[in-house]
Amino acid sequence: xxxxxxxxxxxxxxxxxxxxxxxxxxxxxxxxxxxxxxxxxxxxxxxxxxxxxxxxxxxxxxxxxxxxxxxxxxxxxxxxxxxxxxxxxxxxxxxxxxxxxxxxxxxxxxxxxxxxxxxxxxxxxxxxxxxxxxxxxxxxxxxxxxxxxxxxxxxxxxxxxxxxxxxxxxxxxxxxxxxxxxxxxxxxxxxxxxxxxxxxxxxxxxxxxxxxxxxxxxxxxxxxxxxxxxxxxxxxxxxxxxxxxxxxxxxxxxxxxxxxxxxxxxxxxxxxxxxxxxxxxxxxxxxxxxxxxxxxxxxxxxxxxxxxxxx
Length: 311
Description:
single chain; alpha+beta; Ribosomal Protein S5, domain 2; Alpha-Beta Plaits; 2 domains; 7-stranded mixed sheet; 4-stranded antiparallel sheet; 10 helices; 37% helix; nucleotide-binding; kinase; cytoplasm; ATP binding
């Protein structure tokens, strides 16, 4: 039995434009790391957090990593086990790339490893959703499911939970740019309309079905023309500087489709290769620099592994 483990869990792109709360995929970078050790002292303690600029709580009941570790221990009948945790944030908080998800998933994968993998990654998803509920008030799975399972994921149903791993073109890449502006997930979610017109819902259903079909069929054109959101993006895009200009630049540079990652402010484009993805990130960053906004960029294939042990 292991006494300690170091785990990396990946960032994710949730919604994938038209699939609000039901679609997401994992990327290779960025992500978060958790170091976890078994100790003789009962209880879960959070020793250290780095990379968060002091923004995250060290209280083990309020931090998603430690709080969900406690729930896991209760579930397996080991509530008195001793655990020490270090969280190393390797990705920006509030970026729309599943920051809380990456931390929670790294912690869950770590504690499950220490206790001989008593649950499958799929069985860990409901625990990770509890972490999302603690972090942003709503237990959605479109970040945590792909972070745990890797690849492209569809949440067909939340009650009962029904998660489907989707095929996708193997050369699909994501060009991600994070403009360093503040868009809290809770605020972004509160902006969304609670009621929609039936004609808009029909359009959205068609786009989600088209995107899933395009992934199955390796049909880039179908994927691209399905990446349209008439329900959420029109509201959330207001919070992202020059969003429509960024979209135009990405599409002119060869993007298959373009949209907001999660609740933003990160934006992403899907491309057929790394070269196009790099060209897009450079153009978007150049534009943001011209309007005095710093940004970070990431280019990645779809991550097929989910969390991994680093040591």
